[in-house]
Design the sequence.
């Protein structure tokens, strides 16, 4: 599902694709993940011309605790998508 990770510093994006060979954009999945992690207190958005890039723009007060929260939220979201057969 993860096609590419890019960014600079804490401003980063994760491009989601359904197939790495064809780069079919995973637009629905990206939107679902953004909504799922928002329920866990993590703010993100979709971006890119196909809305299949998860964008993270954390606040200046972003430490290890916040990084753990972000990683846990993403891990849960990706695991749930996989369990639904969408990852």
Sequence:
């Amino acid at each position: 599902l993860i096609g590419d990770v890019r960014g600079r510093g804490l401003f980063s994006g994760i491009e989601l694709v359904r197939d790495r060979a064809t780069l079919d954009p995973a637009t629905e999945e990206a939107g679902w993940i953004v909504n799922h992690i928002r329920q866990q207190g993590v703010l993100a958005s979709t971006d890119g011309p196909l809305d299949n890039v998860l964008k993270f723009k954390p606040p200046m007060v972003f430490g290890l605790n916040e990084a753990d929260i972000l990683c846990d939220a993403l891990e849960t979201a990706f695991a749930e998508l996989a369990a639904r057969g969408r990852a």
Remarks:
- The chain has one domain: 2-83.
